[in-house]
Design goal:
With 217 residues, the chain is α+β, with helices and mostly antiparallel strands. Helices cover 17% and strands 30% of the residues. It has a domain of 138 residues: Cysteine proteinases (Cathepsin B, Chain A). The chain is built from 5 helices and 13 strands. One of its GO terms (molecular function) is cysteine-type deubiquitinase activity.
């Protein structure tokens, strides 16, 4: 879907990205890099239909002459619809010559994350005037081992029912009240048939591969 946006607001977010100043090696830094503003120049120039029509005339002439005009452009990926459930998949491998190598670096992640700096200012399911889009962590998948072999374990939080989340999933509606109770809960570590209660600090120190958050606000 192609739409024409005001250049002054096309790249605006719900919260100021420049105030974020994310710490390197954190999930905020990952999201900041993933949604950064990119310039498309030289061989990455954008094929512009408007510029092509200005240069070559009506579309019927464009096809016959096979002429296209490319122009410099800006590109940015932002969230246009805040999901009820947010799943973050961390890239845990990198190219090393002809081989793939496991990335074992610890990535810091919080129990409550704010997606507002990564949402477009016209995010469809965020109330006008809101500058926060909060999510609470409820699950983590961790991988130990190498690219060839290893073991998956999970952390899950037992918590009270999130009525706000139910409204989002079942009715597509967002209530204004922050469900603080869903932030509380007991964490458990699950490895095959073994389940053990653990602290939140233990969870936050894990080498996350998948992160699962549920929307609060």
């Amino acid at each position: 879907e192609v739409s024409t946006e005001d250049p002054e607001t096309a790249f605006c977010t719900l919260a100021n990205r420049e105030d974020l100043n994310p710490e390197e090696g954190s999930i905020y830094h990952c999201l900041y890099q993933f949604t950064r503003n990119e310039r498309l120049t030289e061989t990455n120039k954008l094929l512009c239909d408007v510029c092509t029509q200005r240069h070559c005339g009506p579309k019927k002439d464009i096809k016959s002459e096979k002429k296209h005009v490319y122009t410099n452009a800006k590109k940015q990926m932002l969230i246009s619809l805040a999901p009820p459930i947010l799943t973050l998949h961390l890239k845990r491998f990198q190219q090393a010559g002809f081989n793939l190598r496991k990335v074992n670096r610890h990535i810091k992640f919080p129990e409550v994350i704010d997606l507002a700096p990564f949402c477009t200012s016209k995010c469809k399911n965020v109330a006008e005037g809101d500058t926060k889009v909060l999510y609470s962590l409820y699950g983590v998948v961790e991988h130990s081992g190498t690219m060839r072999s290893g073991h998956y374990t999970a952390y899950a939080k037992m918590r009270s029912m999130n009525n706000h989340l139910s409204d989002l999933v079942l009715r597509g509606q967002s209530s204004q009240a922050l469900e603080t109770e869903s932030v509380k809960g007991q964490w458990f570590h699950i490895s095959d048939t073994h389940v053990q209660a653990v602290s939140a600090a233990k969870v936050l120190s894990s080498q996350a591969y998948l992160l699962f958050y549920e929307r609060l606000l």
